[in-house]
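Help! Submission page says 'invalid entity' but I think these are all valid:
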Amino acid sequence: MSYSTDPRAARSREAMLAAARQLLAREGPGSVTHQRVAQQAGVGRATVYRHWPRSEQLMLDAMGGADLPLFKDPEVPIRAWLRRQLRQMADELAIPAVAAMSLTLAQSAMWDPELAHRQDESVRTIVERIHAAIQSAVASGELETDAGPSDLAVMLVGPIVYRTTMQRDKVSDDLVARLVDSIGSWHS
Amino acid sequence: MSYSTDPRAARSREAMLAAARQLLAREGPGSVTHQRVAQQAGVGRATVYRHWPRSEQLMLDAMGGADLPLFKDPEVPIRAWLRRQLRQMADELAIPAVAAMSLTLAQSAMWDPELAHRQDESVRTIVERIHAAIQSAVASGELETDAGPSDLAVMLVGPIVYRTTMQRDKVSDDLVARLVDSIGSWHS
């Protein structure tokens, strides 16, 4: 990563980050490649490589200001919506660069307070969104559960992250359905 | 890590690795510190630091030949035994060096085929041990479940790894109990 003080380089860095965030928000982490970011930002591919030799680093910097779509705007029935969201999360984490980015962020957060803050924010966002969705399912009578929001989130997300990053293996639709069903009694 | 061809250095490296493996097997990953390994191997602490500047690297090398005690030798009732094993796993992963080691191994496995092999072995061992325990619980009528062994293992282990490494947060006894209960119907 280059932190040049040349104003033109700084502008082009910002343009590339903005492009990466747009791609991230619209098409998910798999779209944040050197080529797509270069096209979108109107710079050469070599410029993107010069700033971020590896795409995980670019994604990491872009994520700081991105509003990720995952688990946003719950839809009724929540049970089916949760399955779709977890399916999407699993598909994104099946892309090696995305899995590597998650591990890099988690690992760097152990030493670097700024990255720890970023990691905590991103984890908190997911927990809060899942919680909001589950609360609405409980309120509407779709779900009965006595687990706390944070535990529910790790029961849904933890196995998917473990399977994709630690086992480097696929998540079946059956596992996704089983995870959703494991958090309580669904009436949908 | 030093890979000296000096036979004396190689012997002392082997002695340190053997010491680390004994500590790992007897007292768990938290015991694999520079100081304990130096004592156990009868070398100076500086020697351990020279070979492995960070304790995760030492643990990583030691794990290659260690027979980890986790999830070994299931005891009846399996439900209570699983809770104890998961509690122990969570307590080990609560040690920052252990969490960092898990993330380091998983991340390095994405690029390095030798580490990928090591990571796969360690994951397969856990899955097989959990599977064996669950099979015996099903055979004895203690548990009814229709999930496959690999899915059951990630449902138990995934949330604990996620909570400790990605959220850098504690695992409550309540979460441990909830995970064990989520994998099927227990009659114990």
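Support: the input was valid. A stray whitespace character was the problem, and the output above is from the cleaned input. Chain B has a mean pLDDT of 88.
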